[in-house]
Write a structure and sequence with these properties.
3 helices, disordered N terminus, 518 residues, mainly beta, single chain
């Protein structure tokens, strides 16, 4: 993936920094049924009760803040679930804050009732607005415990699934050829699975060789020569001139493609392959053509959707944060929401408006497309979990999925950061930017903890403890504090500490820090 970058990592002991500006005040907080205006501070009417047919709850508030105030929002459901919202760029002065919203369409019965919309300043709650979500008497709400478009796990599916919820039928598949797994049949079905797009062609389903020239230009579908996830690679030539198609699942750091495809080798079931780029002919795969007929030559890529995004995969499988980014190629500066799933279970949503320099460089935009979602400790049950993400209300999966298999934890270690949103000076000749902050840990259950390891993701750094001012042991009800400095570029990183308490329980604590240039 081209977003990977090298960073210089250095830790030194420093004095703790305080970022919150004293005297920040907030007023006119409320929730409403219509999106507040983005221009001018027009106070919308306050609403306290929302039937699910209202579709969306919008949060509005005003504040006198400083650049050290980092404001985020979340939503507390009646069942206690915390749904992450978004955040606002640091500013100084008197402002009205808009853009926070909660989708209540299809709210499940266990989440009907009293909600809270909250605003947090550097992690501390400063605004809380209560409201009620009620059911629609004319319809039965749909449970959000599974994807609204399908109940299958998109990252692993191998058979076409109708995104409208209907059972798969061969009559829906224009490429069914007597049970054979043709490359065309698989690519058409995989596109439907991952993006909800039913590819259409002029004059009916063609051979693979002519897909690039005969695909109907449906809404959102374009063609190009650069590979992207959720696209279809098309080759001409090959045995009998029939060509070949494969679904592009991902792009590696070295530029190679991760594709899934069928009938390659001939009569094979769908498999995953890695295709390396060629400086002279794109992703030419003549070495896999078996010498039969003309070599396969890349014609180009069919972009199935304008949405593009990635779930950053951590080397630490027990990370409690999901970090990634997403954009709409047709409007890269408009933040999107994403839905997070554990297999077929809906976990929650997050607003993708965090700033990332790597995304800004890749897309050539402002870079406010990042998101962070805190995973529940309930996933630490020793079972296998596969976390995947898709664009909210849109049937498009992000590239990558995160495997999580963690032992049950005692939950008696709490990590805090001061602050959790850190700004650094502009780059110098020797350093991208220097960010200083304090990492603290507290033992909360009265059991001592033997700390063993600290990791930072998605960078993949790891240390055996004690190291970097973090001890190897915290006594019962004890604490530690370490002032740190990191020479790096902007982005979002998750710190995770693991160990074992005196009761023999596995312990893990994790938290994210956002790094941004001043």
């Amino acid at each position: 993936m081209i977003l990977n970058r090298a960073v210089y990592f250095a830790w030194i002991l420093l004095v703790s920094l305080t970022s919150t500006v004293a005297g920040a005040t907030f007023s006119n907080q409320r929730v409403t049924t219509s999106a507040p205006s983005n221009s001018g501070c027009t106070i919308p009417p306050s609403v306290s009760t929302f039937p699910t047919t209202d579709n969306t709850v919008y949060l509005y508030f005003e504040g006198v803040v400083g650049t050290g105030d980092y404001l985020t929002n979340d939503w507390i459901a009646p069942d206690g679930t915390n749904l992450s919202g978004g955040g606002w760029n640091p500013v100084s002065g008197n402002y009205c804050f808009t853009g926070a919203s909660l989708t209540i369409t299809g709210t499940s019965s266990n989440r009907l009732g009293n909600w809270q919309g909250r605003v947090l300043d550097n992690g501390a709650v400063v605004v809380s607005v209560s409201f009620t979500v009620t059911g629609n008497a004319n319809s039965t709400p749909t449970s959000p415990s599974s994807p609204t478009s399908t109940t299958a796990t998109t990252s692993r599916r191998t058979l076409p699934v109708d995104p409208n919820g209907a059972a798969y039928s061969l009559s829906n598949d224009p490429f069914y050829e007597g049970g054979a797994w043709e490359c065309t049949r698989y690519a058409w079905g995989r596109a439907l699975e991952k993006t909800g797009v039913r590819l259409q062609f002029r004059n009916g389903p063609p051979n693979a060789s002519s897909w690039y020239s005969t695909v109907v230009q449906q809404s959102g579908i374009t063609l190009g020569s650069t590979a992207r996830p959720n696209s279809i690679a098309v080759w001409t030539g090959g045995s009998g001139g029939l060509g070949h198609v494969a679904y592009v699942e991902d792009i590696n750091a070295d530029g190679s493609l991760v594709v899934t495809e069928a009938n390659y080798p001939v009569n094979s079931l769908p498999v995953q392959h890695i295709l390396s780029p060629s400086s002279t002919s794109g992703y030419q795969i003549n070495s896999r053509d078996g010498g039969a007929g003309t070599n396969l030559i890349l014609a180009g890529f069919i972009y199935l959707t304008s949405y593009e995004g990635y779930l950053d995969v951590s080397t630490n499988n027990c990370s409690s944060s999901v970090i990634g980014w997403v954009t709409d190629r047709q409007n890269t500066n408009t933040p999107l929401e994403v839905d997070i799933f554990d297999g077929e279970k809906y976990l929650g949503s997050s607003y993708a408006n965090g700033w990332r320099q790597d995304v800004a460089t890749y897309l050539g935009n402002s870079g406010f497309n990042g998101f962070v979602y805190q995973l529940s400790s309930s996933l630490h049950d020793g079972q296998n979990h596969e976390i995947w993400v898709r664009v909210d209300q849109v049937y498009t999966d992000l590239a990558h999925f995160q495997s999580v298999s963690c032992k049950a934890t005692s939950g008696n270690l709490k990590l805090t950061f001061s602050p959790s949103y850190v700004t650094g000076p502009q780059a110098t000749s020797s350093c991208s930017a220097s960010f200083s902050f304090t990492l603290s840990g507290t033992e909360t259950s009265g059991l001592g903890i033997n700390l063993s390891q600290m990791t930072v993701s998605p960078e993949g750094y790891s240390w055996s403890l004690p190291a970097l001012g973090v001890p190897g042991r915290i006594n019962p009800s004890g604490a530690f504090s370490s002032s740190l400095s990191w020479c790096r570029g902007p982005g979002i990183s998750t710190f995770t500490i693991t160990g074992t308490d005196d009761g023999g329980n596995a312990v893990m604590a994790s938290g994210a820090v956002t790094f941004a240039l001043q």
